[in-house]
Write a structure and sequence with these properties.
It is a single chain. It contains three helices and four strands; from the N terminus they run βαββαβα. It is an alpha+beta fold. It has one domain: Alpha-Beta Plaits (2-Layer Sandwich), CATH 3.30.70.100.
């Protein structure tokens, strides 16, 4: 079993990789420090040579748009190329599905599901 940081539920763990622009040593350090300090973030890795960020977090607590906001706050941006934008749309969908599943209250097989009366 892999150890995760405090606040991370392995069932809601998601990993994303994004290409960034306007990334330098100074803002990369600031981005990594701020993201790493968030509860329910399992890990952050920024590659300056490739201008990419890899992040793993509990999507029941955070979402990709919150991560992008922190990146933008420090002067970097998500690359606007077609592939990156397609992946970003997919990442948003994954995060929303995880968030919805985290809110779901299971029901017993002998009861009527909520909303089906």
């Amino acid at each position: 079993m892999t150890q995760h940081r405090a606040g991370v539920n392995e069932g809601f763990l998601t990993k994303h990789k994004l290409k960034l622009t306007d990334l330098d040593k100074i803002n990369a350090k600031a981005i990594q420090t701020e993201l790493d300090a968030l509860v329910a973030v399992d890990g952050v890795c920024i590659d300056l040579e490739k201008s990419t960020i890899k992040i793993a977090y509990d999507a029941s607590h955070h979402d990709i748009d919150e991560i992008i906001g922190i990146i933008a706050k420090h002067g970097a941006r998500v690359s606007g190329d077609r592939w990156n934008m397609w992946k970003l749309g997919w990442d948003r969908q994954v995060d929303q599905n995880i968030k919805d599943n985290a809110k779901h209250e299971p029901y017993c097989c002998k009861k009527v599901p909520p909303g089906d009366h």
